[in-house]
Write a structure and sequence with these properties.
single chain; mainly beta; 3-stranded antiparallel β-sheet
């Protein structure tokens, strides 16, 4: 069995090291939630209340 730091070891794809992709998009200011859609980054969506970019949340 290879350890993660050994040559030839498989590593998770970028962006999946923190438990997987986000399940929902959330406004950091007011808490507004929107469903996460595959292929659309949360930061490209804006909160309808605050007009701030949303952030991904697991």
């Amino acid at each position: 069995m290879l350890m993660a730091d050994e040559p030839g070891a498989r590593r998770p794809p970028p962006g999946f090291g923190r438990g997987g992709p986000p399940e929902k998009c959330v406004c950091p200011q007011c808490g507004y939630e929107a469903p996460k859609r595959r292929g659309i980054p949360c930061r490209s969506l804006t909160c309808p209340n605050c007009e701030l970019p949303l952030v991904g949340e697991i």
